[in-house]
Design brief:
Blueprint: E1 6-9, H1 14-25, E2 29-33, H2 48-62, E3 67-73, E4 76-83, E5 91-92, E6 95-100, E7 103-106, H3 109-117, H4 137-149, H5 162-168, E8 172-173, E9 176-177, H6 179-185, E10 198-203, E11 209-215, H7 219-233, E12 236-241, E13 244-249, H8 253-265, E14 276-280, E15 284-290, H9 299-302, H10 313-321, H11 331-341, E16 348-352, E17 355-361, H12 367-372, H13 377-389, H14 394-401, H15 405-417, E18 421-424, E19 432-435, H16 439-444, E20 456-462, H17 467-480, E21 483-488, H18 494-505, H19 509-516, H20 520-523, E22 538-543, E23 546-552, H21 555-567
Parallel strand pairs: 1-2, 10-14, 20-21
Antiparallel strand pairs: 2-4, 3-4, 5-6, 6-7, 8-9, 10-11, 12-13, 14-15, 15-17, 16-17, 18-19, 20-22, 22-23
Amino acid sequence: MEGVNKEYKESFGDAVLKTLCGFANTNGGEVIIGISDKGEVKGIKITNEDLERITGKIVGKLGIHPEITIENYKGKEVLKIRVQKSNVPISFNGRYYERVGNTTREMESEKLKEFFLKGVNWDSIVNESANFNEIDKETVRRFIRTAKNKGRLTIFDEDADIRTLFEHLKLSIDGKLTNGAIILFGKNPQKYFLNAVLRVARLKNEITIVGDRLIEGNLFQQVFEAEEAIKNFINVRYEIKELVRKEIWDYPLDAIREALINSLIHRDYFKWNVQTQIKIFDDYIWFFNIGGLPEGITLEQLKKPHPSVPRNPLIVHVFYLAGLIEEVGSGIGRIMESIKHAELPEPEFKEEMGGFSVYFRKDIYTEEHLRNLGLTERQIKAVFYVKEKGKITNKEYQELNGVSKPTATRELKEIEEKDIFEKVGITGKGTFYCLKGSQWAQRAQKGITMGSNERWTINYYCKDINPKIKELLEEIKKKHGIGFEIIQNTPWDEKKDKEIYEKYFKSRSRILKKRTGKSITELRSKRAGHYFVSIPGTIAIFRNDILEYWELAIDEGIKFLERFLEKGGL
């Protein structure tokens, strides 16, 4: 079947060369000659001379070396021509093609420009018009002083020759300044890069601006001025502990500084017509820079340990030497840790509008937002109760709103379904609701029921792990905060099985027979298809290390876990 890296042709010609060009410029692929567009096998008659002619034409026209084979397909010979992805742009008759789905298209001018610039760093390009008289010496001196104090640049003193320093930092080539030198240390970088500026705005809503700062100058100046501008637009309160006054800002300054610096050093400066922007609203702050994530890095990977893949390596290295960042791809982790420590909602990271955005939210649970989500007055009151107290039980909801238990259960479930509350614990005493993603919820995911001395966990004893059971356990943990452990007895050891049986199961056999309808002998019966605890397995629910429920880890166990996942309890 034809696709992004496969195409059928009945015969060899320019259409094949155009397709191979598209494959080479995308992710590689193969053309199969002797099959129609509809997939009908026509076959092809080909001689050694034909093969030499085809190979010569591909090499001569495209400058790439294909892999060509003749294969028998459905009783007829077909010709397979495979090309790899090229490291350099490939053209056919002066035009550049790419694969989009199962079609070959000529590249648009903007895409072609990006294609040619791929692998070229903006900050390393020489600016033929600039000269050293345009470098701000004071910024250079401050940089050397800071880098020296950090122990990251010890071979230069403050009065070092700037030309020597810049050659060392690769900010100049043969005495000519690079773009990186100008944007980092220039007196007026905007002379060459008009929109290499930072706009910090304070807004009441999407259209009402109550404060606006356009910050120019080099990147060091932009960082320091922008941080002060942001601090002027957000609130600060003070706590005094043991005669020491502590400033507590709407958002932690460490996270602000990290997001601010990232937006400046990782933006795509090739896209000259877009400014870096920071917008501050009543309940959130938004950082935006043009240019998405580096190729090969996803948003999910961004939140985990990942390699540093800088778009502007010279700029990043200078900021590292100055002690303003680390070069190990840890900035996002530090932002998340700082926000978490401040007990604010987890920051959001998005690729949007051709760039990268970071959102810090002060509080997403405003009355207006909750009304827009369709919550009733009683439900809004419950959310504000949880914001103050940290959690709410079904009984507390009844008392808060003067409603019956069934009503409280239904209305709490509605809040949970809107992804505002998380239910922690199983049904009965010890179950409560907290804000989704809060510290209460995060701690509960380890099996700890906050607000009580109860710890609920699910143990899965088995010889061989059933993937479906493992998947259900992970979903239960994610949705309901019940931790789990898989105890695998491989190779099966009767002694180990007996120890588990004696320690946990034997003393609870009479109680659990009444509760589950299954006797301990059935769990150990050969007629049930297994023997002892771990063949094929037993699902056991514990409260504070006391066995409260058991089920066979066969079809019955899967159905039991599916019900558990749906109900959030036994």
